[in-house]
Amino acid sequence: MGEENQTFVAEFIFLGLSQDLKTQILLFILFLLIYLLTVLGNLLIIILIFMDSTLHTPMYFFLRNLSFADLCFSTSIVPQVLVHFLVKRKNISFFACMTQVIVFLLVGCTECALLAVMSYDRYVAVCKPLHYSTIMTQQVCLKLAIGSWASGTLVSLVDTTFTFHLPYRGWNIINDYFCELPALLKLASADTYSTEMAIFAMGVVILLAPVSLILASYWHIISTVIQMQSGEGRLKAFSTCGSHLIVVVLFYGSGIFTYMRPNSKTTKVQDKMISVFYTMMTPMLNPIIYSLRNKDVKGAVRKLAGRKFSQLR
């Protein structure tokens, strides 16, 4: 278990989301369903955008990057959680834990940047439609995508380096369901102030800055939409903006709550439930809200289904 000693920790043991067997079975079924929907939804978006030339636009280029990030983000956490629902000893090696942290921070932080880039793309499309093709060129889109992945990589490396340079001796029980930084820092055998400050600074860069850009972009979009003559166009635009902002609030809100507040000595049940929103819910919701409700994507699905049907005849 987690006896106090002075040896370096070789593995961590998770307490998980629940100790009750019936609750674990119910959560296993629920999380498996969420994960399957996440994988199928994001894979469908990636395949559709790759195969349909009408979707080779800046917006769908960023959506393909977002779907890939969501796929990696969910896969870095959920399969391990599902396995742990079925076994008594919920353990992970020190290096597997480090790998999980690197991967989920890299793709999670990349997603933060991508959502901001996508809001800028929509701002240009709605507020400056005549200049859209000259502003959002293929080269600019590529640079924005590379910049998003580079920023995610940088934040991941900084946070991981600061977290794992700390000594972890003795107590190895994590009151969480995966290797999350705030829960890990509670086990460190040294002062964590500098690490917490580094994580906070990275949070300002990758959470507060992008969410500020997103809110500013949607403020301008809504201001432009209000001036539209068509009531139907206004209603459609408000519906789209509203659904996008729900995802933004869920993803950034839960991320800011977890990483931008002082680290307490204990992990509460609500802390673990809040992290479920950004680790599982948003990767499942993103394909539905950003793509599968879209008229172009629905058309591409019908086209692909029709092509497969004609091949079977």
UniProtKB/TrEMBL annotation:
Pfam families reported in the protein's UniProt record: 7tm_4
Keywords attached to this entry: Cell membrane, G-protein coupled receptor, Membrane, Olfaction, Receptor, Sensory transduction, Transducer, Transmembrane, Transmembrane helix
Gene Ontology cellular component list: plasma membrane
Keyword Transmembrane helix: yes
G-protein coupled receptors family 1 profile domain sequence ranges: 41-290
Main location: membrane
Transmembrane segments: 25-50, 62-86, 92-120, 140-158, 197-221, 242-261, 273-292
Localization per Swiss-Prot or TrEMBL: Cell membrane
InterPro entries hit by this protein: GPCR_Rhodpsn, GPCR_Rhodpsn_7TM, Olfact_rcpt
Membrane topology: Multi-pass membrane protein
GO MF assignments: G protein-coupled receptor activity; olfactory receptor activity
Family statement drawn from the similarity comment of this UniProt entry: Belongs to the G-protein coupled receptor 1 family.
Protein name as catalogued: Olfactory receptor
Provenance organism: Prolemur simus (Greater bamboo lemur)
Lineage of source species: Eukaryota, Metazoa, Chordata, Craniata, Vertebrata
